[in-house]
Amino acid sequence: MTVYYLNNDKNMTMSFTLKKEIKCITIDLANKIINSLSELKDKKETFGKICIPDFTYGINENIVWYESDYIKGDIIKSEDLDVVWNECVLRKDTFTLMNYHRQNYIRCYNSKKIYYIDLNDCRHAPFEERMEKWYKHT
């Protein structure tokens, strides 16, 4: 679902997009990222209170790209990290979001929902690895 914002004069709505390109050293790495983006797209509704913006993605040789809705909002507060803990670290599915820095989670101005914005940083990881990364980065 594309996110629309009402302008200050309240006479038009706008949406914004963000495009990210990742130049990979090998085709194997590029394919690994593409596979993760594909799985994220399939599972985007399974992260509970964490939303994944709409996105498209592709590959051109060793360059992976994705274009997603730009979410206008603020970096989540420290007290919101419990949502990340519950929805990502404690997640039963081994496929999860793997970046636990607050700046990768935005609280949307309009909906007040939390969005994850670093879409290429998701993959399968065992619980122990998620815990280690959590304590290293929070």
Structure characteristics:
3 helices, alpha+beta, 30% strand, four-stranded mixed beta sheet
Report on the structure:
The chain has 138 residues and is of the alpha+beta class. The chain has 3 helices and 11 strands; from the N terminus they run βββαββββαββββα. It has helices at residues 27-43, 81-89, 127-137, and strands at residues 5-6, 13-14, 17-23, 50-51, 55-60, 63-69, 73-75, 95-97, 105-108, 114-116, 122-124. The strands form 4 sheets. A 4-stranded mixed sheet has the order 4-10-9-7. A 3-stranded antiparallel sheet has the order 3-6-5, covered by helices on one side. A hairpin with a 6-residue loop joins β1 (5-6) and β2. The longest helix is centred in the first third of the chain and has 17 residues, at 27-43. It is globular. The model has no long low-confidence stretch (mean pLDDT 94).
Compile the SSE list and pairings:
Layout: E1 5-6, E2 13-14, E3 17-23, H1 27-43, E4 50-51, E5 55-60, E6 63-69, E7 73-75, H2 81-89, E8 95-97, E9 105-108, E10 114-116, E11 122-124, H3 127-137
Parallel strand pairs: 4-10
Antiparallel strand pairs: 1-2, 3-6, 5-6, 7-9, 8-11, 9-10
- Helix vs. strand class: alpha+beta
Number of helices: 3
Radius of gyration: 16 Å
Largest sheet: 4 strands, mixed
Mean pLDDT: 94
Number of strands: 11
The percent range for helix content is 25-40%
User: Into which percentage range does the β-strand content fall?
Assistant: 25-35%
User: Strands of the biggest beta sheet: in what spatial order?
Assistant: 4-10-9-7
* Separation of the first and last Cα atoms: 30 Å
In the predicted model, the low-confidence regions spanning at least 5 consecutive residues are none
Order of helices and strands: EEEHEEEEHEEEEH
Overall shape: globular
